[in-house]
Write a structure and sequence with these properties.
This protein has 462 residues and is mainly β. It contains no helices and 37 strands. The strands form nine sheets. Strands 6, 7, 8, 9 and 10 form a five-stranded antiparallel beta sheet that branches. Strands 1-29-28-27 form a four-stranded antiparallel beta sheet, with no helix packed on it. The chain has a four-stranded antiparallel beta sheet with strand order 2-3-4-5, with no helix packed on it.
């Protein structure tokens, strides 16, 4: 949907995107203490959940369900509120053999889950959609949406990612590459996207849609010689393939900026340092590195005002997920934070950070656990404060404390700076000055508080 102030875009899996111009950037955060399981998973490299942020700030998650037999038997949906509260699961469909559904929000607010399936008789195999008009509380019976093209003969085994752009193109994944269907239903234009000429396997596909140009960009892991992780514009026109930089991984999670355009991915050149690249642009930007946190699995997520979150983690003896967020220009990053994962195996790291905090999803198997799960946590970005103190001339025990507050280099106005019972809001340039009364050589605790950010506390010697 297009408009002067609001634009909505949706996408399945790791790159589910929604343009939310009417929402507050920092909803009141409900920050969990640790990663909590919210959905079953198999540990496949393909994404195992899909999600979309609706116009009200709620995040809708869909995933496959597996009864005691271990066979796929439909899908569930869950809603994560704008405040970060996880609602109970809803069984959206049962009794169907199917692939992971993609999910989008239509211009009228209807949620639409699309999937390839082998349904019970008398239905034919193919592409189907279920819809919800009440925010995921109930879902309609599946309806066929395939175009009828011979390119879709194996669509029942494909993962489908929908993108809201005009006629709602549907990106279909299959073992021979990519098939693009523009629109829903019989007769919708359908074409095959040529990938590398020597491909004999294409999988673990991720897609994102450029907010400025509407271009859909795909990444995939190729077993061709020499193979690797590739990135390519696939709609509305097919672009040449590009080998992603850095060490090869089994997946490359893409995310798009909501403002300013661009599709981004994260990579590591050496297994430790992490960098971010922009599709179609030269070079890359340093994200950072932490001693003891290897970049075995990497992910990205869309943030507010053109920011991009970058996440990575490992399965070492003390496994952790590291995460940080860029500035508006995508050229600098906040301080790196970490959370423990207890992961024995770590598959995908994805999320959505459009409200300010990051709704983070980790596909992992924990030590001594019988199976994989999708784990969820909401985490807050972190500010940086530069603090100086100088005694006032001609006085004793009076100090002028200057504080400059930034978010990855961007000034932060309106933050509350406090110390020794004094407080002040930062200016448009992110600065505040406090006059403190104290003895020379003593210390003062300076705190910086801003809604949607982690509380920052620093000790200052006067």
């Amino acid at each position: 949907m297009r408009g002067p102030h609001r634009r909505t875009r949706s996408l399945a899996g790791a790159c589910c995107l929604a343009m939310i111009g009417a929402l507050p950037l920092c909803a009141p955060p409900a920050v969990a203490a640790s990663l909590e399981p919210i959905a079953p998973a198999t540990g496949a490299f393909d994404h195992e959940i899909s999600f979309v942020r609706d116009a009200h700030g709620q995040l809708h998650v869909v995933y496959l369900t597996h009864p005691g037999t271990g066979q796929v038997d439909g899908f569930q949906s869950r809603t994560i509120t704008a405040a970060g509260l996880v609602e109970p699961p809803v069984q959206a469909l049962s009794g169907w053999q199917m692939q992971v559904p993609g999910i989008t929000e239509l211009p009228n607010g209807t949620l639409e889950a699309v999937f390839g399936a082998l349904p019970p008789e008398p239905f034919a195999s193919g592409a189907y959609a279920s819809t919800s008009t009440d925010g995921g509380l109930t879902w309609s019976a599946p309806a066929p949406i395939g175009s009828g093209s011979t390119l879709e003969q194996q669509i029942y085994g494909s993962i489908i990612e929908p993108h809201a752009v005009g006629s709602t193109p549907v990106l279909t994944i299959d073992t021979s590459g990519l098939t693009i269907q523009s629109g829903l239903g019989t007769g919708s234009p359908t074409c095959s996207v040529p990938l590398t000429s020597t491909d004999n396997f294409v999988g673990e596909i991720s897609t994102a849609q450029d907010a400025a140009s509407d271009e859909i960009v795909a990444s995939w892991q190729s077993a061709a010689t020499p193979g690797g992780d590739f990135v390519q514009g696939v709609w509305p026109t097919t672009q040449s393939t590009q080998l992603a930089p850095g060490q090869r991984r089994n997946w490359l999670v893409l995310s798009a900026r909501d403002q300013g355009g661009g599709v981004f991915g994260a990579f590591t050149p050496d297994g430790t340092r992490v960098r971010m690249f922009r599709y179609g642009a030269p070079g890359s930007v340093a994200v950072g590195a932490l001693v003891g946190v290897n970049a075995e699995s990497l992910g990205t997520a869309t943030g507010p005002d053109g920011r991009i979150w970058v996440m990575w983690g490992d399965t070492t003896s003390s496994p952790e997920i590291a995460y940080t967020r860029s500035n508006r220009a995508g050229t600098r990053f906040e301080p790196i934070q970490t959370i423990p994962t207890h992961a024995f195996s770590l598959t995908r790291i994805t999320g959505d950070g459009r409200l300010g905090p990051l709704d983070l999803f980790v596909d992992e198997r924990r030590v001594n656990a019988p199976s994989n799960n999708i784990y969820y946590i909401r985490v807050l970005p972190e500010l940086t404060a530069t603090i100086t103190a100088k005694p006032l001339k001609g006085t004793t025990g009076h100090f002028k404390v200057r504080v400059s507050v930034t978010d990855a280099g961007d000034p932060v106005p309106g933050a509350t700076v406090s110390a020794k019972g004094k407080s002040k809001k930062t200016s448009a340039s992110g600065r505040a000055t406090l006059l403190l009364l104290s003895s020379a050589g003593t210390t003062a605790t300076v705190t910086v508080k801003d809604p949607g950010y982690k509380l920052l506390s620093r000790t200052l010697k006067l």
